[in-house]
Amino acid sequence: MEQSGTSTRLQAAVQDLASGVVSALRGGDHAHVVPPVGTDGEAGDLAPAAVRVLGADALLPGLLSRTPPDPAELAVFRKAFEAYPPRADAAPTVRWSHWAMARTLRRADPSSAEAPDEPDTAWLDGATWQVLTHQLAVLAPLALPGEDCAVSRLAEGRPVDVARGFVRAVRRRDWRQAAGAGRWLTLLPGVPETVGLDAGLDFVELMGGQDPLVALQVQAARRMRTGARG
Amino acid sequence: MTAPAEDLRAVAGTALAWVDSHRAGFALGEDALAVDGEVDLSWKPLGELAQVCATVTRLTDPADPLHARARGLLDFAWQETHEGALFLRLQRLEPFATYPLEVYAALAAAGLRHPAFEQAAAVVARTRGWRLTEQDPTRRLGVLRAEERCGVHPFGQAPPGLPQTWLGGLPEPWTFGRDAGYALTHVVFHLSDWGCDAAALPPDLVAYLSDWLPPWLDTCLEAGMWDLGGELLAVAAIVARTTGESVPAGDWGRLLAARGPAGEVPLDDRDLDEIGAAPGTDGDRYFLHHYHSTLMAAFAAVLAGARPAAERPAPAAAGRRPGGQGAPA
């Protein structure tokens, strides 16, 4: 359509990329999640930008299954990481998202540079539970089993607040935020049992799962929850 | 934010003053004893007025102007029932209806009693048919409490139907909705004797409510559900009497910002044109759209203001909820 400008095409590329990640997380499709560098046409052009939007989660399937990434995928991921460094005035979530990519790059390819120093979490000092949950949902790629950072430590200190934010997000039908918060809740100790997380993730998927960005977080949460139990 | 106890006293005073200036809206009309009378427009508002005022008188000092105002409204309500005599007449018309006993119990909670009605109610309440009245579990709990108040049963029985209520079953908190909200607030009101006996709430319900009231309050107030928001603030105040949690100042601020020019609180965010489609005069419609939420605001404010400040959180509850503190709600 004539109206589809760059941002619309980028959104479509992000959705496609997220769908690929969901499929790989479900274990049903091991095809390339990330279009390799050199792919002809629009998909190839937009791939690094789409990877930057999705962030570290672009390589999530391999990270969770501990399988080495496809070299071509890794090259696109690296290109996205290098091409879009945070600007000097970038929001903390952007800095953290970029940091998460650096960490993932290092995990996927130990020959990569060490992840830089962590950004700070001062912007979350004294944040209300509503703001905290919103920001954590944006930073859901940081929610990984066995991976520690200042944001995850901060989240571990406020499990009830994140659970409240999950409830709020579901009530407001903000499925992306609910899915991101739900992913964090699978990792946090001290979440009240009454939240009913398994049923909650199913419900979020039922209501919002047609959005690949929601499905990705729900699927990631399920994989992490199964792993934590096994 | 500090607990605005003084502010809340003023809120309660203004709300009850509005109620007092609209006594006529609570008066029993000529159809109060009609077989097909509209109970929701006659006995229900009067019972709600009595229930709130009973709690206000029980939680305030007799020298307090709030106490005097509530006492005056109770006397008015009692006069409307012909000092209880209308309950007997109502029972003759509908012997197995539970609402006369429920409304009467609210007045009895303030010490206004009619022994002949209580005796008559006890005769009916001994039947199997009365006990088997089909009602939802929350309403059933209210009837049980009304029976206790009227001497049909001794006080303080473990309510048998609690696990069948939405709240008693500790449901997933994200399944909360309007109907569940009204059911849960009434379970808390019934269990706690309308806020006068907060310690009667089972500890698991206190912990559950402490965890989940914040998102329910936040989303109801955001949606302009002022009436349910007021009821949830009352529940929060009752829970806080046990946990020592501070008053949710932000939520109170949103409710107070919705008040009308005389301190009255609307039921919800519908504008008056929409309400105008309902039958009755403009004044009737305005009253019906404001009386209950205004009563609830007064009720919640008195409960929050009367909260014992010295109580500390239970150690078990504080330890179990590492994230609950620190951040303003």
In short:
Chain A contains eleven helices and no strands. With 230 residues, chain A is an all-alpha fold. In chain A, helix 9 packs antiparallel against helix 10.
What descriptive keywords fit this protein?
heterodimer; A: 230 residues; mainly alpha; 11 helices; 0% strand; B: 329 residues; 16 helices; globular
Model description:
- The complex is a heterodimer of chains A (230) and B (329).
- Chain A is mostly helical.
- Chain A has helices at residues 6-25, 41-54, 60-65, 71-83, 92-108, 129-138, 150-156, 159-171, 175-185, 197-208, 212-229.
- The model of chain A has no long low-confidence stretch (mean pLDDT 92).
- Chain B has one domain.
- In chain B, helix 1 (5-21) packs antiparallel against helix 15, helix 5 (85-93) runs parallel beside helix 7 (115-125) and helix 10 packs parallel to helix 12 (226-243).
- Chain B is globular, with a radius of gyration of 19 Å.
- In chain B, 47% of the residues are buried.
- The A-B interface holds A 126-130, 132, 157-168, 170-172, 190, 192, 194-196, 199-200, 203 and B 170-174, 176, 207-208, 211-212, 214-216, 218-219, 222, 320-324, 326-329.
Gap between N and C termini of chain A: 48 Å
Proportion of residues in extended strands of chain B: under 5%
End-to-end distance of chain B: 10 Å
Shape of chain A: globular
Low confidence ranges of chain B:
309-329
Mean pLDDT of chain B: 89
Query: How are helices and strands ordered from N to C of chain A?
Result: HHHHHHHHHHH
Arithmetic mean pLDDT of chain A:
92
InterPro entries (chain B): DUF6895
Protein name (chain B): DUF6895 domain-containing protein
Domain DUF6895 (chain B): 14-301
Pfam family, one (chain B): DUF6895
